[in-house]
Design brief:
heterotrimer; A alpha+beta; B alpha+beta; C alpha+beta; A: alpha+beta; Folate-binding fold; four-stranded antiparallel beta sheet; 6 strands; 18% helix; 29% strand; B: Gyrase A, domain 2; Alpha-Beta Plaits; 2 domains; five-stranded antiparallel beta sheet; 22% helix
């Protein structure tokens, strides 16, 4: 039963107020994309044991999507941040590296 | 309901609700809200106003305007007119919602049986609107003071929510904590 | 025989007698008794039969760890099986029955299994009941189920109510013994929000029974002062009868409050499940005493030494005149001393240790008790109760030295901290060599969302086994918790306990050390699941090295007590057999709940009318009053049909279909999703959402649109209306409104966040009615001045106006092929509007119709239905909807996917109509078979039925289906084998999917 703080309304939300949305920072591939790129966009997910950047919606709350940096093994949450970004912001990266030295975003 | 119920549950029908989406930091929006309900634009999760007219923060780009039913059309039109030309959305959602009053000292316990939100007085007080889950549906509520709260849910589940609240308020089910 | 002593019993109220029944016999106890203490006090030592061998069993413990004394409680709608007598508080009128015996507790046929025990070793079921397969169902399983098992399942609906309660606290403390109370005092004084829960009805735990002295006072006094102090603190919540059942991620915990188990039938909820969010959780859950493994350790009358002491001190129960004490540590001496002081006889203390010295041994000797070191029990004599013990050398092979007559045996194999809550969420354990137990490793706690340990073990639960150490540990734990929540504990006066000097314990896993095989077959490890030392040894010999595998193979620790008494002993035996260290063998996983919790408490309020929300349209009550049968669509209930008196449902559907085709029908379409999309970029946005071009739709017009996911599969459809320059109203399917609204917001918030578009889900703001049929226009014209003529409001146009005095928006769209208007009015006026239509419709033969008629009407026209013709693998092209896919747009959601090789394959299954040769109705979902076989040797399937109805209009069965290269095979006859095997395959001809009014003449009038 996770707790994630919604960066849009500030609520420390209970998992039952949230909806998961899978891996964050996927780059959409549209018409013209090569088969391999499109396949990666649709189906290939990193599914790591460890640091994961993911999408959540505060569905039973302010309704907004946000992103979370989380550890899938220890369940530690390094931070949440707005969805309107193409890569994890600096402060999130710093927070992750502090706990997981050597981690690099593979985006 | 016996008098010893944790709280009395009643459904209210006199209140209109208007969704306003737009740039909450913009001046035209602030003055439109001021004209509509006489209040400034509330900060995150805040609700300002009284039983007749109020405005609540719903999300970073959405407010909920509350006013008497009879004024809804006028308020809607006023907002639309004031914001004409700017990027916004005004929609009367009065009929899509059900409103419940929960009166009595036990209102916190009644809600705490149904929602994961922190309802202790230290965490949730006057002036805040909490959008959350109530058993299996979405709801929003706020308190106007020590002994009552107002709750809004979707109209289609009004019967479910009323039954939930009445069940949670059964006099024998007091927890004695909140 | 056990009996009640005339004096004592710290929990008893002797002024209040309580009557109850056990196996229909009347018994008496006192207020304050548990069912177990009252039965023992009445001489009832035999309480049940064991799971597998039907051996006679009595009480072995005094609390939550009890494996044997399970009973069925209550009757009828309040019957509940497998309740522990040791945790059941006695009340007037309690009815209990013993379990797992036939015909009676005293005489049980199933005990023959006991004689066959040597043929029922570990893995017996796995090894024996292999084949033939059919025998499982008809022979083995029913026999096994009858002979092995616990209580019977209740058959009536539960008469009680249950509820949940959410609470957020800073410090949650599990366990109301002295350590929990001390921690609560420290935390409470800082003003922190504290919840302290205790599973029994009493505060203080074991300390008063064990004679602890705190701050110079007897433990009882210290406890009542502590509770009084805590009760005065407004920030502290105290709860007895409330067990912390599980610790979960991020400080979530479940507590199980037995609100009214001891007072059934009062109006309170029987159980309350607390859903707690705590910043820090302190587990002060104490320790459990371990049994010793000697032959016959399961005979009624053999008890844990601490339990025997509890019965004696708390409930004034004598276990019998003569009790033999057998131990490997000092604590059992307390029981011997207490028995002696109560005037009972302790013929001998058999201390397995090489020496029996120290203050407690001295005290025992002073009281005249014979203390023998290096001794153990070779075997217990007795069947339904203890008659004697045979003593032996612990170090030997079990040669009997002496036979000592006695009525009870008090055993102690040492103490194991209750580490369950610490472990539930990943806390790791350390092996404590000196005390021979696992204790929490503070360096490896369960972690919260900040990566910090959030569970703190204190007291006995942390391996601090003396009163003084437990209190110190509690203060330190509370300090750590407070620091984490940002509260300073300040100076704290730590309660001081009188010294409790003790001699080191000596691990004993087998008694005697060199016991014979025959004896090992009578040494019980898991009493509830009937697992013996010999079973675990057999598992080891057969190659089971992992403790988790051994657990499942032997079923040790898998009963309702989850091995509270058996785990450590079992894995010690396994380690010994594997020649390995205990910590290397490790423990099995501790999982919630700590003790079983009721299903009712998990359901909470969600039963009966509150089981699930039912979404209702504004006209729901009318439908109900007019005899509607219902179809659930998502959480909505929609009228399926309106059967009249004496009419079958299918006849009603036929009538409703014919009436819509011939006169006029009314459909409550309020559930359809209605999403407003508005903004300068709204046109661009709807072009991305829909496969067809929506931005070019003129104001005042409607267009049918398709939405695909990024896999290209069709996921929703509906009519889009252009409301004004920058607003589109998107209709979705009934089940799709929330999903599609979320889908839109996802793209707007996460991908195209710079686009100026707002959405609003207005589904429930409007009630919507479809007025359908050749007389629809005439009917509406009686209620409005609006010009609804074909010229003023042509097909696929909309207009605002007033109908029946209600502000209305009229969409001229059709899902039936008839002249049709769908009219949206404010939800609050939906019912009045519907009633006005019904009333005015009378003159035109108007009738309401339900979803089944809607389905038939659309199928006759070959219109697809999301969820029937689509299943998440179907693209619009498969459904002949290529016309609704824009060729001009560079991009829309799903476009790229529809270019994949598999999507443009020529042999995809595509939509066709199917007409049976005999006019019958194809079963929905039936498959068509073609030439050849697939890779598995089965007949190749070449298509399937997606919708199938009897058409009242055409008087025959009609179906839609997806068929390989379907549209290229018009006129071909397909074969549909029937799955019931009785009927011959049905044959159907591939035809055009539009069965009725192919040119659309009826809707364009």
């Amino acid at each position: 039963m996770l707790i994630l703080t919604c960066p849009c309304c500030g609520i420390e939300a209970d998992e039952t107020e949230l909806e998961p949305g899978g891996e964050a920072h996927l780059k959409r591939q549209g018409p013209g994309a090569a088969d391999a790129d499109f396949e990666a966009y649709l189906f290939q997910r990193s599914n790591p044991m460890g640091v994961h950047l993911e999408r959540w919606r505060h569905a039973h709350g302010c309704g907004k999507w946000f992103l979370a940096a989380r550890n899938t093994v220890t369940l530690e949450v390094y931070g949440t941040y707005p969805a309107q970004t193409k890569k994890p912001p600096q402060d999130i990266v710093r927070a992750i590296k502090k706990r997981v030295p050597g981690w690099e975003w593979q985006g | 309901m016996s008098d010893a119920a944790l709280a009395r549950i009643s459904r209210e029908t006199g209140r209109a609700m208007i969704t306003l989406r737009g740039d909450l930091a913009s001046r035209p929006l602030a003055s439109a809200v001021k004209r509509a309900v006489g209040q400034p634009v509330p900060g995150p999760r805040a609700i300002l106003g009284d039983d007749d007219r109020a405005v609540a923060w719903m999300s970073p780009d959405e407010l909920l305007i509350l006013c008497p039913r009879g004024e809804a059309a006028g308020v809607s039109a006023g907002l639309s007119k004031a914001l004409q030309g700017s990027f916004h959305l005004v929609a009367d959602v009065s009929d899509a919602r059900a409103v419940f009053r929960i009166r009595g000292r036990g209102w916190r316990e009644v809600l705490a049986k149904l929602t994961p939100a922190d309802l202790s007085p230290a965490a949730f007080g006057e002036g805040e609107l909490r959008r959350t889950r109530l058993a299996q549906v979405a709801a929003a509520f706020w308190t106007g003071g020590r002994d009552e709260a107002t709750l809004v849910c979707f109209a289609s589940v009004a019967d479910y929510v009323q039954a939930l609240l009445e069940n949670a308020a059964r006099p024998e089910s007091a927890v004695g904590v909140l | 025989m056990s009996a009640r002593l005339s004096k004592g019993g710290r929990l008893l109220d002797r002024s209040r007698a309580v009557e109850f029944t056990f196996n229909d016999l009347r018994f008496r106890g006192f207020a304050g008794d548990t069912l177990a203490s009252a039965l023992l006090a009445s001489g009832q030592t035999l309480l049940g039969r064991s799971f597998k061998y039907h051996r006679p069993r009595g009480v072995i413990a005094s609390g939550a760890e009890e494996p044997n004394a399970l009973v069925g409680l209550g009757r009828g709608a309040r019957f509940e099986p497998n309740q522990r007598a040791t945790t059941t508080e006695l009340f007037d009128g309690l009815e209990a029955e013993s379990q797992n015996h036939w015909p009676s507790l005293e005489f049980d046929i199933g005990v023959v299994n006991n004689k066959l025990a040597r043929f029922l070793p570990a893995g017996f079921y796995y090894k024996t009941f292999m084949a033939p397969r059919a025998a499982w169902k008809h022979l083995f399983e029913p026999v096994i189920r009858r002979s092995a098992g616990l209580g019977r399942a209740p058959s009536s609906r539960d008469a009680d109510s249950y509820e949940h309660f959410h609470l957020h606290v800073e410090v949650l403390i599990a366990g109301g013994g002295i350590a929990g109370l001390q921690a609560a005092l420290v935390a409470g004084r800082t003003g922190a929000r504290v919840l302290l829960v205790e599973q029994t009805a009493h505060w203080g735990g074991r300390a008063p029974v064990d004679g602890a002295v705190i701050d110079g006072q007897p433990a009882d006094d210290w406890i009542s002062n502590a509770v009084q102090a805590l009760e005065k603190m407004e920030n502290v919540t105290l709860r007895t009868r409330c067990m912390l059942s599980g610790v979960y991620d991020h400080g979530f915990a479940l507590a199980y409050e037995r609100v009214a188990d001891h007072a059934p039938g009062d109006a309170r909820p029987r159980h309350r499940l607390w859903k707690i969010r705590a910043r820090r959780i302190i587990t002060a859950t104490g320790a459990l005493e371990r049994p010793l493994a000697f032959a016959g350790n399961d005979v009624p009358g053999v008890m844990l030494a601490s339990a025997l002491r509890d019965y004696l001190v708390n409930w004034a129960v004598s276990p019998g005149d003569r009790t033999v004490v057998v131990t490997n540590n000092d604590s059992a001496y307390l029981s011997a001393i207490a028995l002696k002081e109560a005037g009972l006889e302790v013929p001998v203390i058999l201390d397995a240790r090489a020496e029996a010295t120290g203050p407690l041994a001295e005290r025992a000797r002073e009281l005249g008790i014979r203390v023998l070191a290096g001794r153990g029990i070779a075997a217990v004599r007795g069947g339904k109760r203890v008659r004697a013990v045979e003593t032996c050398l612990q170090a030997g092979e079990g040669a009997v030295l002496e036979t000592i007559a006695c009525e009870a045996v008090a055993m102690s194999g040492g103490w194991s901290p209750v580490v369950h809550l610490w472990s539930h969420c990943g806390g790791k354990l350390d092996w404590d060599e000196a005390q021979a137990h696992f204790r929490p490793d503070p360096a490896r706690p369960p972690l919260d969302h900040n990566g910090e340990g959030f569970v703190i073990a204190v007291g006995n639960a942390d391996g601090a086994m003396t009163t003084g150490a437990a209190l110190e540990s509690a203060v330190a734990g509370a300090r750590a918790a407070l620091k984490a929540v940002g509260k300073a504990a300040g100076r704290v006066a730590v309660a001081k306990a009188a010294a409790e000097p003790a001699q080191p314990m000596q691990p004993v896993w087998l008694m005697p050390e060199g016991a014979s095989d025959a004896r090992r077959m009578k040494m019980w490890l898991d009493f509830q699941n009937d697992v013996k030392v010999s079973d675990v040894q057999l598992a080891a010999r057969e190659g089971y090295e992992s403790v988790e595998h051994t657990k499942r193979y032997t079923t040790i620790g898998m009963a309702t007590d989850q091995g509270k008494l058996s785990n450590i002993n079992g894995l010690a035996v396994l380690a010994r057999e594997l020649n390995n260290d205990i910590p290397k063998v490790g423990t099995t996983t501790f999982r919630p709940p700590y003790t079983p919790i009721s299903m009712g408490s998990i359901a909470g309020e969600a039963r009966g009318e509150l089981f699930q929300p039912v979404r209702k349209t504004p006209m729901h009550g009318w439908h109900e009053a007019h005899g509607a049968t219902w179809e659930p669509v998502g959480q909505w209930r929609r009228p399926y049909a309106y059967p009249r008196t004496g009419e079958s449902v299918s006849d009603a559907v036929s009538r409703e279909v014919r009436n819509a085709r011939e006169a006029v029908g009314l459909l409550d379409a309020s559930t359809l999703g209605k999403i407003l999309v508005k903004g300068p970029d709204a046109g661009r946005f709807v072009d991305m959402l829909y496969t067809n071009m929506m931005s070019t739709l003129p104001v005042g017009r409607c267009r049918y649109g398709l939405m695909c996911d990024e896999n290209g599969f069709l996921m929703d459809d509906g009519v889009v209306a252009r409301l004004d320059e920058d607003s589109w109203l998107c209709h979705t399917t009934t089940g799709g409104a929330e999903r599609i609204h979320g889908w839109m917001e996802d793209w707007l918030q996460c991908e195209w966040w710079d686009w100026k578009v707002y959405t609003a889900n207005l589904t429930e703001q409007f009630a919507q009615v479809a007025v359908v049929g050749p007389k629809a226009r005439k009917l509406l014209e009686t209620l409005t001045d609006m010009d609804l003529s074909a010229e003023a409001l042509p097909f696929m146009h909309w207009a605002d106006g007033e109908i029946a005095g209600v502000r209305a928006r009229v969409f001229r769209i059709s899902f039936s092929g008839e002249l049709s208007y769908e009219i949206a009015v404010p939800g609050g006026q939906g019912l009045a509007f519907w009633e006005a239509l019904v009333k005015a419709g009378d003159a035109f033969g108007a009738m309401p119709y339900g979803t089944e008629a809607l389905h038939v009407l659309r199928a006759e026209k070959g219109f697809i239905m999301i969820g029937d013709e689509t299943d998440g693998t179907v693209i619009p092209q498969d459904l002949g909807l290529g016309w609704a896919i824009s060729k001009k747009k560079d991009d829309f959601l799903g476009k790229r996917a529809q270019q994949r090789a598999d999507m443009v394959r020529p042999d995809r299954w595509r939509l066709v109509g199917l007409e049976t040769l005999d006019g019958g109705v194809l079963p929905d979902g039936a498959y068509a078979v073609g030439e050849g076989r697939n890779d598995h040797g089965q007949r190749r399937t070449i298509g399937r039925v997606t919708s199938s109805y009897r058409s009242p209009t055409l008087g025959r069965g009609i179906a839609l289906g997806l068929v390989e290269r379907g549209p290229e095979r018009m006129g071909e006859v397909l074969e549909f084998p029937m799955i019931d095997g009785r009927r011959r395959a049905m044959q159907a001809c591939i035809v055009d999917p539009v069965f009725y009014d192919k040119d659309g003449e009826k809707q364009n009038v």
